[in-house]
Design a protein that fits this description.
It is a single chain. Helix 2 links the parallel strand 2 and strand 3. The chain has two domains: 190 residues, Periplasmic binding protein-like II (D-Maltodextrin-Binding Protein, domain 2, 3-Layer(aba) Sandwich), CATH 3.40.190.10; 210 residues, D-Maltodextrin-Binding Protein, domain 2. The longest helix has 17 residues. The strands form four sheets. A six-stranded mixed β-sheet has the order 1-3-2-4-12-7. 39% of the residues lie in helices and 13% in strands. The protein has 451 residues and is α/β, with parallel strands linked by helices. Helix 2 packs antiparallel against helix 13.
Length: 451
């Protein structure tokens, strides 16, 4: 049995049928007080406790307005349910859930990162949701690729929440000063290199030394920004039958392209192998780079590009340039999203499902984009809201959704992604050639998966 999860799947299977906790409330927030017009709890309904593990960001002061609405509505409609919400960072929730499984102390419902779903489904810890989904009747309100990612062997194991897509951010003012037309952003790798070289050459005019910012650090964003190109070229981190493919031709070609941007073309900073999302964003805001692949949420929150004084009316968004030699005509964009799951031994599955209905509704996801974290709805009907046609930048997010693709549905994704990022750092820093770095990554990933 494979043990790369930090807890063996054998151990997880052994406790997969164990009971869920309803009482772990460390760092817990009870639901907000119900509105004054809330109906009193019927005496015939027994009190229930619903333990929820969720990400921290939606509850932060600057983002919490949408969640406050959900909490009040849920309490009003389910007055007999006490909500015990433990807020955990996205980076930590997988590890804490695995530890909770080992300690037989899982919550009833949790919000996990989408790429972790296959791992938890394989462990046997989460329950199929098809009975709820059938009555709900809303699965067709999700992009097909997104919905397919939560289905295993014909059964639905999660419901996608809000998420994100990726586009090319570029500086309008820098394009103009470099003699480029801001109405014609680069559409291919070749055009991206050409524009980045012209922008870099015009640094004395623009005050921006590099044409392109690049994710190359040890961050999941490095993997996601790479996968977009790998998919264009017909590849993936895994083969069709689930075997590692880190040294396949599409992956090698992608890493060679990224390495050339730094070492050969010199249009990206030399320390790109250390740069993660925060550093890439700061380089745009700090007038160090004129273009970068960024996430849709970064425009309104996090980096808050639209609030930066020096970027006002000077940033535009476009689809990610298509890889040279692509097997498709339209470029992919990596879509990320959380996924709501219910654990097998929860005794309050109905209450858990009602929570999921609330936090995945189109109305809530629109509110998140407007007043919360800035994440994109995964509900197609939400895109009818006028907010998405109110700004050309927001419109580009919707335009790329038909070509949005989730990360590969494999229980070994964490190993593959981490091993790939090591190869990226080795190649971009010049320690190894892209081919050698990926050959080593392939061996390392296979060894870990085989254990």
């Amino acid at each position: 049995m494979k043990k790369w999860l930090g807890i063996s799947l054998a151990s997880m299977m052994a406790i997969g049928m164990a009971g869920c906790s309803n009482g772990n409330t460390n760092n817990t927030a009870n639901s907000t007080v119900a509105p004054n017009n809330a109906s009193p709890a019927p005496t015939s309904l027994a009190k229930q406790a619903l333990t929820i593990w969720d990400w921290t960001d939606p509850y932060a002061d600057q983002y919490k307005k949408p969640m406050d609405i959900v909490l009040a509505k849920y309490k009003q409609e389910n007055p007999n349910v006490e909500l015990n919400i433990e807020k955990i960072t996205n980076d930590d929730i997988r590890t804490k859930l695995l530890a909770a499984a080992s300690a037989d102390n899982l919550p009833d419902v949790a919000y996990i990162d989408g790429q972790s779903l296959a791992e938890f489904q394989k462990s046997g810890l989460i329950t199929p949701l098809d009975e709820f989904v059938q009555k709900w009747g809303q699965k067709n309100d999700f992009p097909k690729a997104v919905w397919d990612s939560v289905v295993f062997d014909g059964k639905t194991y999660g419901i996608p929440g809000d998420g994100d897509v990726r586009t090319l951010l570029y500086r309008k003012d820098a394009f103009e000063k470099a003699g480029l037309d801001p109405n014609k952003p680069p559409k291919t790798w070749s055009e991206l290199i050409d524009d980045a070289q012209k922008l870099t050459a015009a640094k004395d005019k623009t005050g921006i030394p590099y044409g392109l910012g690049l994710n190359g650090g040890n961050s999941e964003h490095t993997s996601m920004n790479s996968l977009q190109y790998i998919w264009d070229l017909g590849g993936d981190f895994v083969t069709a039958d689930g075997k590692p493919a880190l040294n396949s031709e599409p992956v090698v070609k992608t890493l060679q392209f990224m390495t050339d941007l730094v070492q050969k073309n010199k249009v990206a900073p030399p320390d790109s192998y250390l740069r993660m999302k925060k550093e890439v964003a700061q380089a745009v805001i700090g007038n160090e780079t004129a273009m970068a692949i960024v996430g849709s949420w970064e425009w309104r929150s996090d980096a808050s590009f639209l609030k930066a004084a020096n970027l006002k009316d000077n940033v535009l968004s476009a689809p990610i340039p298509l890889a040279d030699g692509a097997k498709v005509t339209q470029p992919y964009t990596a879509v990320g999203y959380g996924t709501w799951v219910i654990f097998n031994k929860s005794k309050v599955k109905d209450a858990a499902w009602k929570w999921i209905e609330q936090v995945t509704s189109p109305e809530h996801e629109v509110n998140i984009f407007k007043d919360g974290t800035g994440n994109m709805p995964m509900r197609v009907s939400a895109y009818k809201d006028p907010i998405f046609s109110s700004d050309p930048i927001f419109k580009t997010f919707i335009d790329v959704v038909p070509n949005a693709r989730p990360r590969p549905k494999t229980a070994s994704y964490e190993v593959l992604s981490q091993t790939y990022r090591t190869a990226v750092q080795e190649a971009l820093s010049g320690k190894k050639s892209p081919q050698q770095a990926l050959d080593d990554a392939q061996k390392a990933a296979q060894s870990k998966i085989d254990k």
